[in-house]
Amino acid sequence: MIPWTLLGTAQIPNNGGELKFSQRGDEFSIRLSGIRGELMNSRVFNSEKVLSELGCAHIANKDNAQVLVGGLGMGYTLAAALKALNSASQVTVAELIPEVVTWNEGPLGNCAKNPLKDPRTKVHIGDVKQLLVCNTPTFDAILLDVDNGPEGLTHSDNNWLYSVAGLEAIFNMLQANGRLAIWSAGPDYLFSVRLKNIGFKVETRIVRSRPGKGSKHTIFLAKKL
Ligand SMILES: C[S@@+](CC[C@H](N)C(=O)[O-])C[C@H]1O[C@@H](n2cnc3c(N)ncnc32)[C@H](O)[C@@H]1O
Question: Which atom of ligand 1 sits closest to the CA of residue 146?
Fold first, then answer.
């Protein structure tokens, strides 16, 4: 069996721990210290892809569609958003950890077919929250996969995104008919209620981590009507 080779490490802000980036043949892995199992593996990305397909379906033919993706990870959500949109669209991807962007600029980028090189991609290095607080309807879709789900596990500052204040800010940043799609490791009934109370029409979808098999993840699809 090919052994894993450590390619790099990165610190999560505010003592959030350390990310370890490794390679084994053509497979890549990102682990978080203190958490059993992987945060991301380059061979497991079905629900990350479906997140974009659900969140962008309503703007497939829209010129100048504006989409925000938080965060970059291994680039699968970004790549699927670009695939779902036409050539006159823009996708801003916010990534908290600069090293994750650097890793995607290297061989890891090949896994999702180098979405950072697409001229429609704009990279924001920093917290996605920074792009959600100007109260101006800007985005047709906001796709969030920054954590384990509505409870910020990897970065406690992420709890704001799923709070009433955060969701109200997101609602105000969406254009009319905009969509918020959120990836979660599992269901959360109270979170669906919170989204509805903000004014979203909410659907939840169960999506496998690999096509037709693997873990069952939840995608919250919230529509601003
Ligand atoms: C689970 S990964 C995303 C996987 C991604 N959907 C994909 O297709 O590979 C989560 C990413 O979000 C980043 N992140 C976490 N909190 C963030 C925040 N507040 N703003 C921007 N990026 C964040 C992490 O550094 C990590 O790269």
Answer: 12
Q: Is there an atom of ligand 1 within 6 Å of 146 CB?
A: yes
Atom from ligand 1 closest to the CA of residue 12: 25
Domain count, the chain: 1
Residue in the structure block whose two tokens are 């593996």: 41
Domain of 145: which CATH number?
3.40.50.150
Domain enclosing residue 218, as ranges: 44-223
- Compute the distance between CA of residue 65 and CA of residue 91 in angstroms, rounded to an integer: 8
**Residue owning the nearest CA to atom 26 of ligand 1:** 73
Q: Could you tell me if residue 88 is inside a domain?
A: yes
Query: Does the beta carbon of 48 lie inside 6 Å of ligand 1?
Result: yes
pTM above 0.85, yes or no: yes
Residues 92-124 pLDDT 10s: 999 999 999 999 999 999 999 999 999 999 999
In this predicted model, what pLDDT tens digit does every residue of 146-173 receive, in sequence order?
A: 988 887 556 678 999 999 999 999 999 9
